[in-house]
């Protein structure tokens, strides 16, 4: 069974910033982030529980999946209408993003 995957406005803005940064700073692999993201989204469509549980003080049932080669995290929750990506963040930032 396939489920819908969609981005919150915050996650979409973060993703756009990540794509811009990646394109400008990784000229030897400009499409890697897009490719790895596509793989992760395909996985979430068929296996929404694939990400590891991520404890959060205010939100319940948050999960996180890592994009291994680019070192980005996708933070998400599973809702009745699909998988909602809440944030896209570099694992190298040293702090977790605000989740809403």
Automatic annotation (TrEMBL):
<dbReference type="InterPro" id="IPR007712">
    <property type="entry name" value="RelE/ParE_toxin"/>
</dbReference>
<protein>
    <recommendedName>
        <fullName>Plasmid stabilization protein</fullName>
    </recommendedName>
</protein>
<dbReference type="InterPro" id="IPR035093">
    <property type="entry name" value="RelE/ParE_toxin_dom_sf"/>
</dbReference>
<dbReference type="Pfam" id="PF05016">
    <property type="entry name" value="ParE_toxin"/>
</dbReference>
<dbReference type="InterPro" id="IPR051803">
    <property type="entry name" value="TA_system_RelE-like_toxin"/>
</dbReference>
<comment type="similarity">
    <text>Belongs to the RelE toxin family.</text>
</comment>
<keyword id="KW-1277">Toxin-antitoxin system</keyword>
């Amino acid at each position: 069974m396939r489920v819908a995957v969609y981005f919150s406005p915050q996650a979409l803005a973060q993703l756009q910033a990540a794509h811009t940064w990646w394109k400008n700073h990784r000229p030897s692999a400009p499409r890697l982030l897009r490719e790895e993201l596509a793989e992760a989204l395909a996985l979430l469509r068929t296996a929404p529980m694939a990400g590891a549980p991520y404890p959060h003080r205010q939100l319940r049932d948050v999960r996180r999946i890592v994009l291994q080669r680019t070192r980005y995290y996708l933070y998400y929750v599973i809702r009745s209408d699909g998988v909602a990506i809440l944030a896209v963040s570099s694992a190298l930032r040293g702090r977790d993003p605000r989740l809403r």
